[in-house]
Design a protein that fits this description.
The protein has 3 helices and 8 strands, in the order βββαβββαββα. It has a 3-stranded antiparallel beta sheet with strand order 3-5-6. Strands 4-7-8 form a 3-stranded parallel beta sheet, with helices on both faces. It has 106 residues and is an alpha/beta fold.
């Protein structure tokens, strides 16, 4: 288990295979404070480094294509995972720091 201090909130999360905080975990953490539901048509992926930087993940473009095919309309992803060409119906929001991610969600 690892603890992450995220914009005034201490969050404990269990990592699967490692002690990493992911972007979706940070959204769940912030949602508890704001008590607002997340957009049900939004996806997100990426890893959060110790200083809050958002790191890319493998096969980002393939993940986005699959998400668009399943009807998702917004994707908040690491800036390094931006697809080469736009995907129809999917708004891609590049992120470089976890604070930007939380601002974009809420």
């Amino acid at each position: 288990m690892c603890t992450c201090r995220l914009i005034g909130l201490n969050h404990r999360a269990w990592g699967v295979g490692s002690k990493q905080i992911t972007i979706p975990k940070s959204y769940r953490c912030r949602r508890r404070i704001r008590d607002k539901p997340l957009n049900s048509k939004m996806i997100s992926f990426g890893e959060v480094g110790l200083s809050g930087e958002i790191r890319p993940v493998p096969d980002g473009e393939q993940r986005l294509r699959e998400a668009a095919g399943h009807g998702y309309t917004q994707a908040l992803i690491p800036a390094a995972n931006i697809p080469r060409k736009a995907l129809d119906g999917l708004q891609v929001v590049p992120l470089s720091h976890v604070s930007h991610a939380v601002e974009k969600v809420f």
